[in-house]
Amino acid sequence: MEHVILVDEHDAELGTMEKLEAHQKGMLHRAFSILLFNSRGELLLQQRSLNKYHSGGLWTNTCCSHPLPNEDLQLATKRKLLQEMGIDLQPTFAFKFIYKAALENELIEHECDHVFIGRFDGEPSLNPEEAMDWRFENLASLKNSIQENPQLFSCWFKMILDHPEFSAKLHSLGHS
């Protein structure tokens, strides 16, 4: 049984809870989201496996998960990126934010989400338990796709793309 790290609004650890229980109760917990861009500035998207307990089949950022109790956040991002997408690299921390959103199956996503960004030119090797498809897409086209069909994308991914710190970070990296 996988556990998540419960945190307060300042990201201070409060303890742990079984992952599904935390999502049933809407408990604030630590998470991370990784966004990898290729040299053309296109974002690597993942389509979540239908086996996922929530948001299955939705398009989202390159990789997202939760650090394990007592696991360093940097190590967690590297571990999950390799496990989900077959990509061995260390993304860089960009910013964090807290959000709360109702999901299907009466689950509540309430996360302190640490957003990491990196560069990847290549083809991922998907773990079918985690992801069923992938694509690179430029941000202008992606934002149009989200506007036309918002139901096809995960709630946290849309929040990341709209976050002012994400725009500022992209600008500083030369993407816009």
Tell me the number of helical segments per DSSP (H or I, 4 or more residues long): 5
C-alpha-based Rg, rounded: 15 Å
Query: Could you name the CATH class?
Result: Alpha Beta
- Strands of the biggest beta sheet: in what spatial order? 6-3-8-7
CATH superfamily descriptor: Nucleoside Triphosphate Pyrophosphohydrolase
Briefly note the CATH topology name: Nucleoside Triphosphate Pyrophosphohydrolase
How many discrete structural domains?
A: 1
List unreliable stretches of 5+ residues.
none
Please estimate the helix content: 25-40%
Determine the oligomeric state from the structure.
single chain
The percent range for strand residues is 25-35%
Largest beta-sheet characterization: 4 strands, mixed
Task: Report on this structure.
There is one protein chain. With 176 residues, the chain is α+β, with helices and mostly antiparallel strands. It contains 5 helices and 9 strands. Strands 6-3-8-7 form a 4-stranded mixed beta sheet, sandwiched between helices. A 3-stranded antiparallel beta sheet has the order 5-4-9. Strands 1-2 form a two-stranded antiparallel ribbon. A hairpin with a 5-residue loop joins β7 (92-102) and β8. The longest helix has 13 residues, at 73-85. The N and C termini lie far apart (40 Å).
